[in-house]
Design a protein that fits this description.
Elements (H helix, E strand, L loop, with lengths): L1 H29 L5 H27 L5 H18 L10 E3 L26 H10 L6 E3 L3 H14 L3 E6 L4 E7 L6 E10 L5 E9 L8 H15 L6
Antiparallel strand pairs: 1-6, 2-6, 3-4, 4-5, 5-6
Amino acid sequence: MEHRTSGAGRLSAFGVIAGALFVIGPALAWLGIVRGLVAFVLFGLGGLTGVVVGVTSVIQAARGRGLGRGGAVALAVGVVFLALASRGAGKPRINDFTTDPADPPALAHAATLPPNVARDMSYPKAFADIQRGCCADLHPARVRAGAPEAFARAEDVARQMGLTVTSSEPSAGLLEAMATSRLFGFHDDIAIRVRPEADGTSRIDVRSKSRDGQGDLGVNAARIRTFVAALEAGAPTPP
């Protein structure tokens, strides 16, 4: 009996620890105490622990030993973690998307920012085929306006989407921006390129790249779709 009680106690303790890590990770990132990647590791560790402890607790409860507070906490954490993880199901493990895989806009200014100085900011050629397989719908925006007006509209849409403009060169048709995720403070770099067409319209290409991780849960592709749709509709979009 004592052995069973101590075992249940340890399981309950692990459940509480899982819940704590699950909450503390994002909180530390939000407060700026740790980097987003460190916070995500804590969050993921809490989630995985919650899954294991939660499943074990359910098995014990089915055997009549009770779920316990720690088990209930772990079960709740595990369910939420699996729900969030399912968002990445079917998404390719790449974190760099563009409307022009053959000639993607360069992240020239982003490469000079301190967090990116030691990083290769070029678009990986292998990503092109992967992107075509999963996101063939990504396409450049084509607007009925000259390059100066198209550039102004592109910058306006970027700001309306909550992006932080880091570099703006209207004469070159080049704009760069940064997006920051709300939960972990992850940063994505965005490059926008405006080119005039022979018929008086303008073509606007976009590239969106995450600084961390191998996958992005579809965030960059979704951002490009939103940006292009807003430009082609001729109106800005809310964040």
